[in-house]
């Protein structure tokens, strides 16, 4: 029974610009998936090759990609690896045949969202797509928060940045005061302004924001 899943998904209502991309060289598969996914209100675009998909794809697009693991030219694995390196929130679902499960597992280790094995069940496909779109929404919100933190970082003075760096390194107020040759009270004042500007609720929240920002920017 899949009737309950055929109602319009909340993300389809909230995000009309969200797109589910289908990349498969099998026309029957493309048509079947397009009909199924569009039946719950999602915008669907399908392509017969990874190359044709890349010609129109924009990294700023929100949604998810279902891609066959084996295709002529660029494979689904190659496309998935390329998308992982792009500044995009686009989760990738790998479509695999019975003999390609190990390849799909490897793709997940490389960053794919999940995989589905042919022949697929309609409900499984819809659940995976809905999960991938929710993951895209989460990543997009996280990226927006990172951008807000970056903008707030721009408001810090050079001295406040120095204090912040030492806080992240785990230095105490006294150690920071000694390192910067300033008083403990001055450190406390800088620290308070840093917390206020970055809208950190606590020291732990401040460290979390900066640590996640470093990961977002690809820093160790």
TrEMBL record:
Q: Does the keyword Ion transport apply?
A: no
- Span of the signal peptide: none
Q: Is this entry keyworded Transcription?
A: yes
Q: From which domain of life does this come? A: Bacteria
Q: What would be an example GO MF term here? A: DNA binding
Short name of any one Pfam family annotated for the protein: Response_reg
CDD domains attached to this UniProt entry? LuxR_C_like, REC_FixJ
All residue ranges annotated as the HTH luxR-type domain in the record: 149-214
4-aspartylphosphate is found on 68
**InterPro entries referenced in this protein's UniProt entry, alphabetically:** CheY-like_superfamily (IPR011006), Sig_transdc_resp-reg_C-effctor (IPR016032), Sig_transdc_resp-reg_receiver (IPR001789), Tscrpt_reg_LuxR_C (IPR000792), WH-like_DNA-bd_sf (IPR036388)
From its record, what is one biological process in GO terms? phosphorelay signal transduction system
SMART domains in the cross-refs? HTH_LUXR, REC
Assigned keywords, A-Z: DNA-binding, Phosphoprotein, Transcription, Transcription regulation, Two-component regulatory system
Which segments constitute the Response regulatory domain?
A: 19-133
PANTHER family reported for this sequence: DNA-BINDING TRANSCRIPTIONAL ACTIVATOR DEVR_DOSR
What is the name attached to this protein's record?
Answer: LuxR family two component transcriptional regulator
Q: Which organism is it from?
A: Varunaivibrio sulfuroxidans
